[in-house]
Structures
1.
Amino acid sequence: MPTIETFHMPDAGEGLTEADIVTWRVAPGDTVEVNQPLVEIETAKSLVELPCPFDGVVVRLLAQEGDTVEVGVAIAEFDVDPDGEAPADDAPVAQDAVAAEAVVEESAAPAPAPAPAAAPEAPAAPAPAASSPAASSPAQDGSGAVLVGYGVKAGSAQRRPRRDGALDPIGGADEASEYPVLAKPPVRKLARELGVDLTTVTPSGPGGLVTREDVEQAAQAMSARSLATYAGDDQPWLESGYSKDGGRSTRVPVRSVRKRTAEAMVKSAFTAPHVTVFHTADVTETMHLVARLKADREFQDVRVTPLLIVAKALLLAVRRHPEINASWDDEAQEIVYKHFVNLGIAASTPRGLLVPNIKDAHRLPLHELAAEIGELTALARENRTPPAALSGGTISITNVGPLGIDTGTPILNPGESAILAFGAIREQPWVHEGEIKVRWVTQLALSFDHRLVDGELGARVLADVGRVMSDPSQGLVWG
Amino acid sequence: MEAHGPHTDDDLVTMLTRTGERIPHPDFDRYAEDLDAATLRRMWHDMTVVRAFDNEATSLQRQGELGLWVQSLGQEAAQIGSGHALNGNDFVFPSYREHGVALTRGVDLPEILRIFRGLQHGAWDPEAHRFHLYTLVIGAHSLHATGYAMAMDRDGLVGTGDPARDGAVVCYFGDGATSQGDVSEAMVFAAVHDAPVVFFVQNNQFAISEPVTRQSRVPLAQRGAGFGIPSVRVDGNDVVACYAVTRWALERARSGGGPVLIEAFTYRMGAHTTSDDPTRYRTRADESYWAERDPIARLDTYLSSLGELGDDAREAVAAEVKELGRRTRETVRSWEVPAVGSMFEHVYAEPHATVDAERAWFERYERSFADQGVHA
């Protein structure tokens, strides 16, 4: 009765992960000697002949010529004791002491993971006792009983299994882990740009590496796509979601931008007492100015919109009332007045709501301001907003007009004291120079932090914005 | 083999031709006088044993038992010849291919494989064997060798005239190492300090795949002149000449005569390592040219022609290498994976806080795996 030894695909070079079987030099049933030619393999580096590791009889070959086999996977079985005595029972014979121990250890664990594909198509075994495919036994996969050491990384793409339980904090795989997520720098950059939290991504690369595809997939799963009204019944409506209540709802884990938006809004709404003031303005002159600038040769390379003028108007108002451009430092019990304006503009992006800001907007001439707004919106639309643009804002604008909305009561961007809502511009009947005329009219709303901004200051700021919008030449006076 | 250019087998010190004929040499014959038939048979034995061991190790690598193996195939004469010229006062700094020299220094050959199985950085006591650990960094040990030689000089172990006391250092490296800055620096220091060090270059003609013709415009031995170091080009496949030339150099160094550069011109008959495929960069014609110059074959022919190598000797060696092969396989497979902390043990001679912290961290890390110990 046989004593079976298994030969695993070795790493014939340094750090190779797989090799192709080119030619078998032996066949099942052959009597073989140590170091006689066994099989010719082709690696990424060269054609290599592997010498036979055992004296005995070839029981079976577990890989076909032409197969690509991962390093560490069993490729042949040998009976190294063909004249030996039968074991007491018919169980597969343990390879050696190490293998036997491995069986004992594994039996205490939950169901063993499926073995790497190896043997299903192997030729029929000569004896029933040897018919248990080597690869299906926990003793023979993974921790390779025979080739202890360098060559036995079974399934090189897999991570070594970690111990269960939280006894050793290093063992935890999640946030608590002191081991960083494995990803190459360009992939980390991509994740940052797409707003993907790498710790939430399931890695598919070798050794638990997060790949570019993993990140892209995670980003796709995150992005809200339109919900089908009567989509496939009990299926979740979003890739990132799962279905509950017998398929009557889709639940999506709160992550990334959505999570940060929620936190920011709650923080802002429940720390800064909000007050909103409203102002309706005749912006016909602004519309004329926009038309003139659009025709201006110097502005051909930028987009001129009413948003540009309202941004400039807000900057002018801040210049007249710098107290509005401030923040409340609760910890220090101080109010911080900013000597600069980082002008935030709320943008709806594929990732969700973002408020990127234009640094030192107060220094920008109108043309540069237009260029900056153009770049900021383009980056947001392409999901490429750099992280630096999302911090350090001092005052913001939310442009709700393009959605056809008159106005709103915006919530402050945390750390800022005022936010201006810019509503839709419509042609409306308006009393102009004593007569009812059709004029371009819009509504402006300013929310502010009532801890440091009194109603009067807020009202003056909003009035100044309205004044410039109604009569842009006022900018000459205040500029 | 091209018959022109600086890197040929012309003008070498040769005492045993490729056809196994012993020819006289005016300068070095007297250093080979003590090579009687028994000693030559011992050299033949050592060369045969180390080649068999080399082949066994190559097989073990192919069977997944070693991460890497570095073959010495074809360089046996250079190593066994020079190794036999050493005495117990001498100290050797090898690179990583000097399995033949290791044998002459009394290292049990299978022990070498601990390094190549990834278990230990070195597996013998360098002081006991007067044989330093293998250095894998190309040429780095030429500086260690020179420093050691300078220290021997300062310790009064050179030039006393007492053969029981005087010693020297031999530093083995390859043609590729001569392109390294370290080797030039070592030669500068060795020359100006008259250090008792013999630089033994086994010019096997390849730095992995880079032929020596692309590394030097002149024969490597000629470089010695620039440093003020006398040099010799010797037939590296001639065990008699390698012995004689090394003996001359060692006697000179031990007596306070200073360094010598020996270029043993040989041929790496195998691959650079088991990760290398030499068929990609050299021709079959080259290989067969050098197969005809096999170092063991020519000594075999010579001893046979003297009637000094009979069937009994051959059978004895055949049985010995078979047993060595079996012992090597079993030894290698039986080795336990050492405790993970052991790799930190010889970083510093004394306890060191940083090393302790790193060891603790690494042990914790290894414990976090369910299969700990298996992949160490």
2.
Amino acid sequence: MNSEKRSLGFYVLTAFFALFVLFLYGPLTTIFILSFQGPNGGLTFPMNGSSVHWFKNLLFEQQAVGDFGGAFTRSLLLGLMTMLATVVVSLLAGLAFRRRFLGSGPLFYLTIASLIVPSILISLGIGLAFQVFGLNPAWYSSAFGAHLTWTLPFGLLIMFAVFNRFNPSYEEAARDLGATSWQTFAHVVLPIILPSLVGVGLFGFTLSYDEFARTLMTAGTFNTLPLEIYGMTTNVTTPVLYALGTVTTVFSMAIIVVALVAIAVLRKRRARKVAG
Amino acid sequence: MTLSRLAPYLQATPLTLILAAFLVLPIATIAMVSFWDYDSIQIFPAFVFTNYEETITSPVTWNTYINTFKYTLIVWALTLLIGFWVAYYLAFHIRSTTMQMVLFLVCTIPFLTSNIIRMISWIPFLGRNGLLNQTLMSMGIINQPLEFLLFSDFAVVLAMVHLYTLFMVTPIFNTLMRIDRALIEAARDAGANGWQILTNVIIPLAKPGIAIGSIFVVTLVMGDFITVRFMSGGQSASVGLMMANQIALLQYPAAAANAMILLIIVLMLVGAILRVVNIRKEL
């Protein structure tokens, strides 16, 4: 196809794709701009001057509702816990599924079911189970488990994709050279799949950091950031809401960029090693 | 040797335990509580069918389901249409792999940011004094701001398409990338035109991706409550929202009965999709 001239279809689809990207990013851009609204500005255009008033208001003043700092800390910690658990558990399960074992079929379907069951059911179910067993739900216990039911299937599917493309002759070569199975894993398998593990970690962190429905009934006494933001939407009618939106989105984007750079660097380093 | 035979079991144990504790047990609890009784202050163990009876015989439930199916059908059709062409463009019109990955990431990044923020971000655009109304009024197309833009079914569908199209793009893109380009060459050599190649070669081979994307979108929309609550301003109903309201009123057994019915319907829909398309070989 490469030698052909661009057809009319190409230009039509390019325009369509550009519109789609505009559709994805346009609204986010508007709240980004509006978060720099002047002190007397409102929730919509026109801009009434421009300032960082609402960011200062968000970060340094006591809000009428909620506790932004505490919610952010909890979401950050929960995201990191979920990320670590997702990477470790998906990697182990991915390794397990490379071989046949009794119950692998049911476990696979259970993992897929975890992806399909509506979030609100997980939320309700975990909330009820904790109540029935007389436990207090908290963001680090019940919400942590609820988030894992969402991140682990993604992690496992990524591991499947990785191991489907993994060439087992590397491991055989290592074993022929006398490496133990641990050495083979640590010095051969792990370096090859490391970029994908960073990807799994990225999914684990961001999906947890932004999760709302699964946290709703499982967070317990203290809110996570998405719950806090949702609470604000019903009470706050100033651009401080947009400032919060901008801050959390910039934070998410920064995490994504760091992860992508890490993946690129790891890949390049590997390529250099292989070439050298 | 025994250890190496045991290894997969040990490696699969953490996943199994987590899913048992946070998926199987909670759903079993919902199933149990759906037969419990409740009054205005507490729930108590019992074995009654009233929760199911009340749910099934209430016309509100039926209307809510009809509304939810309406959302599901519209959002599914739109995300499929948009998602397919976006994936098609990326897979067949972008020539360099690097560019493909960059554009794919451009589509993926919003998925990794907050859904709530992405919903909020429609307010300045669709609101009564929002950008769209201002633009249309200044162009003289309308005299009064359009009221239906925000807090309406229109807004719900728009936000869902915005949130969920990526779930279509990714699996379809994945299957399109695996299509052997020689098949398309062969079809063209055999005299097929662009449309025939699309309908006879590409779409049949993209079916598994379409099915996976459809499962995602259907289950997400069927269980959604936050988009419906936020974007309709509380004016529209969905099954998820009905459950969320019952939960807020502490009517857990009623919510649990609703949840069981929703779960059965979602599993039936997924089963129906899997009957049409076999996705096993994709996984």
